[in-house]
Amino acid sequence: MLVEISIENFLSIKDEVTLSMVASKDKSFMDNTIKSKPLKKDRLLRSAAIYGANASGKSNVLKALSYIKRLVQTSHNYQSDTKIKYSPFKLDKKCRNKPSKFQIIFIKNDIKYIYGLSVTDVKVVDEYLYYYPGGRKSQIFDRKDTTTFTFKVDKKDQDFFADKTLGNVLYLSRATQLNYNRTKEAYNWFIENLMTVSPDNPRLQELSINLLNDNNTKDLIRNAMIRADVGIEEINARIIKFNYDQLPSDIPENLKKLMAEPDVTWMTPEIKTIHKGVSFDFSEESEGTIRVFDIIGCWIKALKDGKVLVVDELEIKLHPHLCSYLVTLFHDSSQNKNNAQLIFSTHNVYLLEQDIFRRDQIWFTEKIPETGQTDLYSLWEFSPRKDKNLKIGYLTGRYGALPFIQNKGLIS
Question: What confidence tens digit (pLDDT) does each residue in 183-242 have?
Fold first, then answer.
């Protein structure tokens, strides 16, 4: 489970902002919260929605989670000259060469972890990992100025791992690759528990197809498509694998040359649907139907396995009622039995109802005009009455986070 993430000097985010999944003391809609043993008195939110104008930075908050996950997952494979993908705040000259900084607090197997890192394009500047076994804070490692490490446990082993860690490589990734158990759980949280979904992710459909062909989950996929009311009575799908020698003869020669890698296996989906007893190719379905199938695998996987699902632009090609249904699945303890969490960005104002969300589940991003940087804040800060119409309050600018559109025509 995610507790919070703090971000500084990353894309449109200049000064530190924090997205917290810790629930307020509000006693309404307690089903939207999770009891967390490591946090003792505090509870966690099952979902959080981020609203804001276009280019206000709401996607960048979510991209920070994807960015950290990717670094953790891949940096141990870097060579000494591999550049770290680095995207500082560019509208302030002082920030362009400063590190991007992140801190993420999460829970894995009932133990709280705090992981922090700061990076430039050529090195990991600082990095640390703390955890709370038995409820007491303990250091696993602390790294400063790229090469200075402090270890309170397993010093001999960790000195060896540190010597094997290049300046542009995360110690969390390298030590885990070398089978160090104290970093493994934190590393696995990023790999196993954090699932990030961007609007153009080509692997989404593959996950849904794999679940459709798994005896344990195929009925869940089929039933979900039927309940989405897209007219499908049956759906079958498979992944067709082929190599260069098996490419169809009608593929243009210039394209075949680009694909001329004998050792590479290519994959393409084949999906068939049934409407009123008639078979259709998936390409004949509406874009909304395709979108539902693409993302439904993520929903089932997250709910079954208790993952943190991060979705940018949830409402793309989806009806508002379907968006509401997908969100409330995370609030339903009969569907969300393993404490999965959903974090998403959206423009769908129909979700801004207090019979769907608690006030602490709604967040806003706003671009500060003087600096161009992103500010992130919660609706909870405004303390709206529980009977207040949040949709009208948002659209009339009561909470900020709206675009300023000059009232001028396009053609002069």
Answer: 999 999 999 999 998 876 767 888 899 999 999 888 888 888 887 767 888 889 888 876
* Dist CA 397 CA 412 (whole Å): 29
Beta bridge pairs of residue 365: 52, 376
The mean pLDDT of the chain is 89
Separation CA 365–CA 387 (nearest Å): 24
How many Cα atoms sit within 13 Å of 60 on the Cβ side? 31
Specify whether 285 is located in the same domain as 229. Answer: yes
- Tokens standing for residue 10: 């990353």
255 DSSP assignment: H
Domains held by the chain: number: 2
Q: How far apart are CA 124 and CA 406, in angstroms?
A: 43
Q: Which residues of the chain have pLDDT under 50?
A: none
264 with 334, same domain: the answer is no
Q: Given the DSSP bridges, would you call strands 308-311 and 341-345 parallel, antiparallel or unpaired?
A: parallel
CATH number for the domain that contains residue 112: 3.40.50
Torsion angle, CA of 89/93/94/100, rounded to 10 degrees?
Answer: 20
Last residue of a domain, one of 289, 306, 323: 306
Ramachandran angles phi, psi of 107, nearest 5° = -125, 130
Bridge partners (DSSP) listed for residue 242: 266
Q: pTM for this one?
A: 0.90
Is the Cβ–Cβ distance between 379 and 362 less than 8 Å?
yes
Structure token pair of residue 106: 């999460």
**Token couple for 73:** 């997952």
* Residue 29: strand, helix, or coil: coil
Phi/psi-derived region of residue 110, left when phi > 0, alpha when psi is between -120 and 50, beta in every other case = left
Last residue of a domain, one of 306, 325, 358: 306
Beta-bridge partners for 194: 308
- The boundaries of the domain holding residue 205 are 201-306
pLDDT tens digit string along 62-114? 999 999 999 999 999 999 999 999 999 999 999 999 999 999 999 999 999 99
**Same domain, yes or no: 376 and 326:** yes
